[in-house]
Design brief:
Layout lengths: L1 E5 L3 H12 L3 E5 L3 H8 L10 H10 L3 E4 L10 E4 L15 H11 L7 E4 L7 H12 L4 E4 L9 H6 L4 E4 L5 H12 L1 H5 L4 E4 L1 H32 L3 H9 L20 H14 L7 H24 L8 E5 L14 H11 L3 E5 L4 H7 L4 E3 L2 H4 L5 E4 L4 H4 L3 H5 L6 E4 L6 H6 L3 E4 L6
Bound molecules: uridine-5'-diphosphate-xylopyranose.
Length: about 450
């Protein structure tokens, strides 16, 4: 099939290459010239394991190309909308300007019988509105909503092997056609018996925000327990293990620590609250405000803990921060808890050196006033405390004995409960973590 993908960020770029991998002829369209140029030369504009290989492989087949011109989408049977929906400045609501611009530009090139497929995370009600627009301007063209659940760091795997497909279809005579076309797009995935939920627009839109709200709630739940563990002397890691054995609860997403960040969870729960307010159903989601609050409190608590281990004052203390990305295997620093803590420490008088295997360049652009180092050893040279704030494998596997040689004081704060506490304490380190007793 001939497919266009409008918007080539994390979602769109990976989607475009994945569709080419499935055998389709794909054009990715983005207004950012540099991004388009990089992608066309098989260079990933962001860090994503496996993506560059996929890109090189699919470009080499001749089935994948990129363009800055929306006209390149003309003649495609299916048009994916993969643009971002960031949080509006100064508001909780999602900023739909890119979705609207993408839809508007597509209206100039699509023809009757073609399918527009929304993948961006949007407030419920957006698809119905866009469907009206499409139907009005291009009679016979169809719109479906097909949310995407990819995680950064696993984007390729999640796109090619999703755990479910969700189709939000129009009512009426186009319904069966739209489903058939989507099934054809995802043929190998459908053939594997991947669970498929065929539903209406509103449900499809809500599936995405509900899923992310659930994940955020799960993380904040365990972080709330961590606060109680700090008050009682209990251990949140063992607590999570013990409740996680109940398969109704499950151990995944129960890692207590600095909490969630990134380009999705924080803005999605806020946009969901804002939309519920518009619909007069805000009470249903007031708990998400608390989920957000618990999450933000962890960052403040981390700074307090750093002050505590630095004998009550951060002034002039040398602090090494290991990790800047919002999670490992990513260079994404959007709403990164790690970088937030690093900046707070610096603003409160500490001398902070940050290191990260992939996100230094992005971090330097956002926070030029922090110091950056390329290795943990360099960052920790003569440090008064070391904070591990993103659980990259490299940091989890640090040898606490050798690493102890470079610092001024062997004090480590494990912001992700990811280090081997026994090994670090055995090597003479003072070990502190959120929700656990001092080691
Ligand atoms: C998320 C959803 O998982 C994905 O389905 C959706 O499509 C986009 O948003 P992503 O933002 O890539 O994906 O990251 P995710 O792996 O969900 O982690 C989000 C944040 O939660 C990270 O900051 C991570 O460190 C934190 N987290 C995760 C915890 O603090 N504890 C956990 O147990 C798990």
């Amino acid at each position: 099939m001939r497919i266009s993908v409008v918007g080539c960020g994390y979602l769109g770029a990976v989607h475009a290459a994945s569709m080419a991998e499935l055998g389709h002829e794909v054009v990715g369209v983005d207004v950012d010239e540099r991004k388009v140029a990089a992608l066309g030369e098989a260079r990933a504009p962001f860090y994503e394991p496996g993506f560059e290989d996929l890109l090189a492989r699919t470009l080499a087949t001749g089935r994948l190309r990129f363009s800055t011109e929306i006209a390149a989408a003309a003649g495609s049977q299916v048009h994916f909308v993969c643009v971002g929906t960031p949080q509006k400045r100064g508001e909780y609501a999602a900023d739909l300007r890119y979705v609207e611009a993408a839809a508007e530009s597509l209206l100039g090139v699509i023809e009757s019988g073609e399918l527009v497929v929304g993948k961006s995370t949007v407030p419920v009600g957006t698809a119905a509105r866009l469907a009206d627009l499409v139907g009005e301007k291009v009679p016979g063209a169809m719109l479906v909503w097909n949310p995407e659940f990819l995680r950064e760091g696993f984007a390729v795997q999640d796109t090619l092997h999703p755990d479910r497909l969700v189709y939000g279809l129009p009512d009426g005579p186009d319904r069966a056609t739209a489903e058939r076309v989507l099934d054809e797009v995802y043929a190998p995935i459908v053939a594997r018996q991947t669970p498929k939920v065929v539903t209406d627009y509103a449900t499809a839109e809500m599936v995405k925000t509900a899923a992310n709200s659930f994940l955020a709630t799960k993380i904040s739940f365990i972080n709330a327990m961590a606060e109680l563990c700090e008050a009682t002397g209990a251990d949140v890691k063992q607590l999570a293990d013990a409740i996680g054995y109940d398969d109704r609860i499950g151990r995944k997403f129960l890692n207590a620590g600095l909490g969630f960040g990134g380009g999705c969870l924080p803005k999605d729960i806020r946009a969901f609250m804002a939309r519920a307010g518009e619909l007069g159903a805000d009470q249903a989601l007031t708990f998400l405000r608390e989920v957000d609050n618990i999450n933000m409190r962890r960052r403040i608590r981390m700074v307090e803990l750093a002050r505590e281990v630095c004998d009550g004052s951060l002034l002039g203390k040398h602090i090494a921060v290991l990790g800047a990305a919002f999670k490992p295997d990513s260079d994404d620093i959007r709403d990164s808890p790690a970088l937030n803590v690093a900046a707070q420490l610096q603003l409160q008088g500490a001398v902070v050196t940050v290191t990260d295997p992939a996100a230094i360049e992005n971090s330097r652009r956002l926070w030029p006033q922090l110091d950056y180092a390329t290795t943990p050893e360099e960052a920790a040279e003569r440090a008064d405390a070391v904070l591990v704030l993103t659980e990259w494998r490299q940091y989890r596997e640090l040898d606490p004995v050798a690493f102890g040689e470079v610092v001024a004081s062997k004090r480590v704060l494990d912001g992700r409960n990811a280090l081997d506490r026994e090994a670090w304490t055995a090597a003479g380190w003072t070990y502190r973590a959120l929700g656990r007793r001092a080691g």
